[in-house]
């Protein structure tokens, strides 16, 4: 019998709660739902008003994994949706605006992916992102070196960067920005990625060609494009273990470069719940519109 629960006055049918989704640790679907409920206060502000792309893995990361952007079949009528402009034609997508919608979406076994803009102003960037992806034998240690360089470079332009784990192999840098289209932010991010490739010779690659990435960190600037999405802060990832794309401090990043080990840059669901209780949301400044920085205008 499918359990029925009530969340904020909404009745939800939660299925297969004992199903093991992460065999390496025995982490179940019920634990997935508990995790999302536990971090809802810090997760929801990063989801709110951003059209959601679902990366679903209903049978765990070893089963079928697929992206879904359109409103899924069977979506309750109380879930907020919005029409989103796309080059191939408008799509109707889900907005996770409240706890009930978060639990409903989590019950589908979902990684949450969101764009760098909000529905009120599609294509007008309010965030800048770099995805630092190491090519073996490079690791998160090399990603940390690149992250620290990018932090200083962004600071030179008056942009304050924050960092989170990708929940996979690398790191994500995020910054609050204003006054620029997604296209301009993409151009700016690419300019900095190319600059990093020149400054950190042999360590960084800015081009997407996979054959160039061995032993280097790919600075992926392309996720700033209006059509692209990035793993939302605090989302679980479809990996062997229930790792999370979670914020970390710059001190923790610096420690990784000093001691040449992953340190606290690989975080599981249990780690993140404890960190939220200790630190709150380390990415809260991204939500403060008064702290958003203008993106430099291109040189004439």
Automatic annotation (TrEMBL):
Database matches in Pfam families: LigD_Prim-Pol
Keywords per UniProt: Ligase
Family matches, as Gene3D superfamilies: DNA primase, PRIM domain
UniProt keyword Ligase, yes or no: yes
Domain DNA ligase D polymerase: 28-258
One MF term in the entry's GO annotations: ligase activity
Entry-linked CDD domains: MtLigD_Pol_like
Name recorded for this polypeptide: ATP-dependent DNA ligase
Organism per entry: Streptomyces antibioticus
């Amino acid at each position: 019998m499918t359990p029925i629960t009530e969340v904020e006055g909404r009745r939800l049918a939660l299925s297969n709660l004992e199903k093991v989704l992460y065999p390496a640790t025995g982490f179940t679907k019920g634990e997935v739902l508990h995790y999302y409920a536990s971090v809802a206060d810090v997760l929801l502000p990063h989801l709110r008003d951003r059209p959601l792309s679902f990366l679903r893995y209903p049978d765990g990361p070893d089963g079928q994994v697929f992206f879904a952007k359109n409103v899924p079949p069977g979506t309750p009528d109380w879930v907020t949706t919005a029409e989103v402009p796309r080059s191939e034609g408008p799509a109707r997508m889900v907005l996770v605006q409240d706890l009930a919608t978060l639990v409903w979406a989590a019950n589908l076994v979902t990684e949450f992916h969101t764009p760098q803009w909000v529905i009120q102003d599609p294509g007008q960037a309010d965030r800048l992102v770099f995805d630092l992806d190491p090519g073996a034998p490079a690791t998160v240690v090399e990603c940390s070196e690149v992250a620290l360089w990018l932090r200083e470079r962004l600071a030179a332009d008056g942009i304050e960067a924050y960092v989170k784990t990708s929940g996979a192999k690398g790191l994500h840098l995020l910054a609050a920005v204003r006054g620029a289209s997604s296209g301009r932010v993409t151009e700016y991010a690419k300019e900095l990625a190319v600059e990093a490739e020149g400054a950190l010779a042999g360590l960084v690659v800015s081009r997407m060609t996979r054959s160039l990435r061995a032993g280097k960190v790919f600075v992926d600037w392309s996720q700033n494009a209006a059509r692209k999405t990035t793993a939302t802060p605090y989302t679980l990832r479809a990996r062997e273990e229930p790792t999370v794309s979670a914020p970390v401090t710059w001190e923790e990043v610096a420690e990784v470069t000093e001691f040449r080990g992953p340190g606290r840059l690989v975080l599981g669901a249990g780690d993140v719940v404890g960190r939220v209780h200790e630190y709150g949301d380390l990415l809260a400044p991204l939500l403060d519109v008064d702290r958003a920085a203008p993106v430099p205008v291109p040189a004439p």
